């Protein structure tokens, strides 16, 4: 995946409402335009990296990109679980993320309560460990997180070539 690390940001929108309610693992969802502008070499699966809501602190995150086979979605999504407890929802805020690495492919599960939640928790633990590596830790301090978020969705791969027609800045 030549496009990693991949920097993107966009407005947090309401998703399917399953992350918090059914799984106990809240997720933040991007608009379709952010998902549609992913580079071709970033396939479906589970990724880890860093995330920031607005201009607040930067936290570890895991992200699912794909169709969520368990739920048989017909629309590809990017669902980010920020590894932090927030006091309230942040719909409408700008979420900035850097996808640092890949954990595993998407897969379907036989049960919601057991296998899927166990896999997500395992992904979270793997992300926490990998993000402590020096080469990954340095991305937490990237100037991408301290620059003012734009008012429109932005997606920029590691090579710096913006992929959105409404780009305000190159994100890195």
Task: Sum up the structure in keywords.
172 residues, alpha+beta, six-stranded antiparallel beta barrel, 4 helices, disordered C terminus
Condensed summary:
This protein has 172 residues and is an alpha+beta fold.
Describe the structure.
By secondary structure, the protein is α+β, with helices and mostly antiparallel strands. It has helices at residues 19-23, 32-36, 112-130, 134-137; strands at residues 6-13, 28-30, 45-53, 58-66, 77-82, 94-104, 154-156. It is built from 4 helices and 7 strands. Strands 1-2-5-4-3-6 form a 6-stranded antiparallel β-barrel. The longest helix is centred in the last third of the chain and has 19 residues, at 112-130. The protein is globular.
Major β-sheet annotation: 6 strands, antiparallel, barrel
Number of distinct helices: 4
Strand order of the largest sheet: 1-2-5-4-3-6
Average pLDDT level:
82
Residues in β-strands, percent: 25-35%
The arrangement of helices and strands along the chain is: EHEHEEEEHHE
The count of strands amounts to 7
Which outline best applies?
globular
N→C terminal distance: 18 Å
Low-pLDDT stretches are: 161-172
Topology:
Layout (H helix, E strand, L loop, with lengths): L5 E8 L5 H5 L4 E3 L1 H5 L8 E9 L4 E9 L10 E6 L11 E11 L7 H19 L3 H4 L16 E3 L16
Antiparallel strand pairs: 1-2, 1-6, 1-7, 2-5, 3-4, 3-6, 4-5
């Amino acid at each position: 995946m030549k496009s990693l690390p991949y920097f993107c940001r966009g407005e947090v929108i309401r998703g399917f409402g399953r992350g918090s309610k059914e799984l106990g693992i809240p997720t933040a969802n991007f608009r379709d335009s952010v998902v549609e502008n992913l580079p071709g070499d970033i396939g479906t699966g589970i990724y880890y990296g860093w995330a920031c809501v607005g201009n607040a602190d930067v936290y570890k995150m895991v992200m699912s990109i794909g169709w969520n086979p368990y739920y048989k979605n017909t629309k590809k999504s990017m669902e980010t679980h920020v590894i932090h407890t927030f006091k309230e929802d942040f719909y409408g805020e700008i979420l900035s993320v850097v996808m640092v690495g890949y954990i595993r492919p998407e897969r379907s599960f036989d049960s919601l309560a057991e296998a899927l939640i166990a896999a997500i928790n395992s992904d979270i633990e793997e992300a926490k460990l990998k993000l402590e590596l020096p080469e990954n830790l340095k991305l937490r301090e990237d100037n991408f997180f301290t620059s003012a978020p734009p008012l429109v969705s932005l997606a920029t791969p590691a090579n710096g070539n913006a992929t959105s027609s409404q780009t305000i800045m190159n994100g890195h």
